[in-house]
Amino acid sequence: MFSKIHIFAVAFLLGQVGLASFARAQSLPPTPHTPDLLGIYPGMPAAAARAQMQKLSSTVNVTTASPADSGFGISITDPKNPNSMNVNLTRAPNDPMVWWITRSQRYNQGAGGPPLMLNTVLTALREKYGKETFTHDQGGGGLYVYWLFDQSGKLLATADQTLQGCNTGQFSLYMSNGLPQAPTQVDQACFKSYFGLKASFNNAAANGMLDSYTVELANLPYAYRAAMNTDNVKKAADQKAQQDLINRGNQNKPTF
């Protein structure tokens, strides 16, 4: 018959093997190289994406985000043409891959640079990505235009309007803090289907001149799979730590 010590040793070794298998870098499924945003696409390896981003400037360096494994970005502060770009990455045990890209540009009135015109920016987006899937105009300074794609990168002519509620910024917190235990119906729809590009236009004047715009491209089904891998590792580590504590307690036999 096995002694308690033998049982604890076996449990410990199994736990170590299980945790090690989770902790090894995991390959995510391949993704299409289009759509992309300035040459960077969801599923692109981090090193390649960083090199592509650096092509935006010969004088401003790409900087690492905090925490360092979360992503990187570049901010060009030229008052005549200020713009920035940021990339968010999948976390360990996944290989570091892009899942979310943002690009922002603003117009500094009086700085001498060319203004940003709504129709001109929309035309450029349509020339690259095609006709938008849907538009949401809040009026008074909030216009949101969406291009939705299937997982092969094919543009969708129509899509579930629920996907307008997908919050990529919130998902970046899920990457850090873990997925929600009880996701909402909107969350579930986003995790399943949202592969899209969203353009946000701020304070368009009557003449069509913009204060700024932001374009973001994200693949949430891909990001969700990566976040699940990260969650599983954390849970395995937490369970191992708890079991180690119990084992120590079981062997802490007092003398009477």
Uncertain regions: pLDDT < 50 for 5+ in a row?
A: 1-22
Distance between the termini: 27 Å
- Quaternary state, please? single chain
Summed up, the helix count is 6
Largest sheet, described in full?
8 strands, antiparallel
User: What structural class do helix, strand and pairing data support?
Assistant: alpha+beta
Beta-strand percent range: 15-25%
Order of helices and strands: HHEEEEEHEEHHEEEH
Describe the global form: elongated
Q: How much helix is in the residues?
A: 25-40%
Number of strands: 10
Going across the biggest sheet, name each strand in turn.
Answer: 1-2-3-4-10-8-7-6
Q: What's the alpha carbon Rg, rounded to whole Å? A: 23 Å
Mean pLDDT: 89
